[in-house]
Design a protein that fits this description.
Length: 637
């Protein structure tokens, strides 16, 4: 990787303000104090190492979760500057760890060409939210060390020896008086660092979990960069062309893009700016889509694959089945909001569009068989889209002729304020009947479903609109599907899936979640989808009130408390076994019920799981079942 030749000393460390508010309002700086915020601490320190890699100085990062949930992060970059800062009169390294918004990433005369952690709060916030932090720096022929407790210096930077190497090592213990848990999830960290390694071609990242024997470890090093990333994302999908289309261009905005088409019906486009996952897209995604649509249409017309009278293929036709990763490096990125999820730099649109258009046109001309295979899929998608449009219009016309635009089996609630309303999608007419009688009609609506519904992983939109099991769900939610989905139009703040606690119920939940993920993803991203948890057991004993148990452990506990003699144990096989009062009390009453919110923590992992479980390829599904069978509970045979 080319090094960014620039002075990186104390003068480049700019100080904007102090640390006072971080411990009082940690959520302002790391989002939350849950496990998500805990992981954010690790990301902040690793991001600093990655910035060194982006500048061309760091080639390897070692991350360890030590016993006691101590985090250790070491790189072989230049090492944080150790000379005295001209403004703070303390070492530059101590300044970085004790002053908010102090770092080498501000202004045109900074120590970095591009950087992910542009807000510069990383190191100081991690320090402020840790019980203790130790920093060891190898630089300028010396080995230096400093120590902190809860953000305050207890041992200032001191030279402890000599070193011919360079780099920085940070060890910290997050503060258990601030965070809800200190128990890091190894799998989550592993996924994040795999992603970073894909995005930083040539960088080696090692992660090891030493909390248990034997330790878990992984090594990520991808010379293929984004090509390797796309191949990883598509490992369980059938590919239309073997090798990903690869675009790389240096310049004002360095661009790296990899594209591969699969036989699936969904699009999967990931976008990054300076290694930050821009989940809401932005100008780089806009430029990519614009070039993709124009280039494929130009090629199709010039090679008589589509006729002039048929008009252009739409963008959604051309993106059906695409897996793409877009990574741009922007010197001064403008993100919308503090969350850094949408790029706003207007000049990036044209730069990406031009680069993609030129490179893709050349690829299609040089690879006519691949071009033809992709365009055949695009044309097929166009026909299906037209069929879906007709089906959608049919649904709308049918709704307009009826007295209500709602499905016939829906028992609606009286309130029309979406934020206070909830709809239960209930498996079976029997349970649906009990739910209708037991509900609070003011804010709870009931939609019974019957039989197995369509697996949307294997279906196009036209089949979905014509499906009698999914049509009621689409109409009840009221916000459309796919590209037409509008989260502001949802009729219910909570969409609750209530199915039996058995294999069939699990299948129905999976089918519905696949549908929501593929065609109403904002519903999940916005936190509107929930799973109801009906009880597994009812314990009855003469002279004592009935007790409902939701887990085997809970049942054992209550059995011991009630005295096992004379206790009648009823195992609920289905929701239909409960009368309306029982269903209300155990599963629908907001004061007593248990709801699990469906969260979309990692879209990459979710896409992989849905592909494995609901796709056509049997081999990865069998492997998944073999690896995870040991975790299954309450399996009815």
């Amino acid at each position: 990787m080319e090094k960014f030749e620039h002075e990186y000393g104390a003068e480049q460390i700019q100080v904007l303000e102090g640390l006072e508010a971080v411990r009082k309002r940690p959520g302002m700086y790391i989002g939350s104090v849950s496990i998500r915020g805990l992981h954010h601490l690790v990301y902040e320190i690793v991001d600093n190492c990655v910035d060194e890699a982006l500048a061309g100085y760091c080639t390897e990062i070692d991350i360890k979760i030590e016993p006691g949930n101590i985090i250790s992060v070491q790189d072989n970059g230049r090492g944080i500057p150790v000379d005295i800062h001209p403004k703070t009169k303390i070492s530059a390294a101590e300044t970085v760890y004790t002053k908010l918004h102090a770092g080498g990433k501000f202004g045109g005369d900074s120590g970095y060409k591009v950087s992910g952690g542009l807000h510069g709060v990383g190191a100081s916030v991690v320090n402020a939210l840790s019980t203790w932090t130790e920093v060891t720096i190898a630089r300028d022929g010396g080995l230096f060390e400093m120590k902190f407790e809860k953000g305050k210096t207890v041992e200032p930077l001191t030279r402890i020896g000599d070193s011919e190497k360079t780099g920085t090592k940070v060890r910290f213990l997050a503060d258990d008086t601030i965070f809800e848990t200190l128990d890091y999830d190894y799998a989550t960290l592993e996924e994040r660092f795999r992603e970073i390694a894909f995005l930083t071609k040539g960088l080696k990242i090692n992660i090891e979990d030493l909390r248990e024997e034997p330790s878990k470890k992984a090594e990520f090093h991808f010379e293929g960069g984004l090509k390797s990333f796309v191949e990883y994302l598509n490992k369980n999908k059938e590919k239309i062309h073997k090798d990903p289309i690869y675009i790389e261009k240096d310049g004002e905005v360095p661009i790296e893009i990899a594209i591969q088409y699969t036989t699936s019906y969904s699009e999967n486009i990931l976008t990054f700016v300076n290694n930050i996952n821009t989940v809401e897209g932005g100008t780089h995604l806009e430029g990519f889509k614009r070039a993709l649509t124009k280039t494929f249409n130009d090629y199709a017309k010039s090679h008589n694959l589509i006729k002039e009278k048929d008009g252009n293929l739409q963008g959604e036709d051309i993106r059906e089945g695409i897996t793409a990763v877009i990574s741009v490096k922007v010197k001064e990125p403008q993100f919308e909001g503090q969350t850094k999820t949408k790029l706003g730099n207007s000049n990036v649109t044209g730069i990406v569009s031009s680069a993609v258009g030129e490179a893709l046109a050349n690829f299609l001309e040089e690879n006519p068989s691949v071009a033809k295979a992709i365009l055949e899929k695009c044309i097929s998608a166009s026909r299906a889209r037209e069929a879906a449009r007709k089906a959608r219009e049919l649904v709308r016309r049918k709704s307009a002729l009826e007295t209500s635009t709602l499905p016939g089996k829906l028992a609606d609630c009286s309130s029309k304020v979406a934020s206070e309303c909830e709809v239960y999608i209930v498996e079976g007419d029997s349970a649906g009947g009990s739910a209708k009688q037991g509900r609070d009609r003011r804010f709870q609506a009931i939609l019974p479903l019957w039989g197995k519904m369509l697996n949307v992983e294997k279906s196009r939109a036209d089949k979905i609109y014509n499906n009698d099991k999914l049509q009621p769900v689409i109409l009840a939610v009221g916000a459309g599907i796919g590209a037409d989905f509008d989260i502001s139009k949802i009729r219910y703040g909570k969409v609750i899936i209530m199915a039996d606690a058995d294999v069939d119920g699990a299948h129905i939940r999976t089918l519905l979640l696949t549908f929501f993920f593929r065609y109403m993803r904002p519903l999940i991203e916005n936190g509107n989808v929930y799973l109801a948890q009906p009880p597994l057991y009812k314990l009855s004993k003469k002279g004592k009130p009935d007790v409902y148990c939701y887990t085997d452990e809970e049942m054992t506990k209550h059995l011991n408390e009630m005295g096992r003699d004379g206790v009648n144990i009823q195992r609920y096989k289905g929701l239909g076994e409960m009368n309306p009062e029982q269903l209300w009390e155990t599963t629908m009453n907001p004061e007593h019920r248990i709801l699990i919110k469906v969260k979309l923590e990692d879209a990459i992992k979710a896409d992989e799981i849905f592909t494995i479980l609901m796709g056509d390829d049997i081999t990865p599904r069998r492997k998944f079942i073999e690896e995870n069978a040991k975790y299954v509970k309450n399996l009815d045979i």
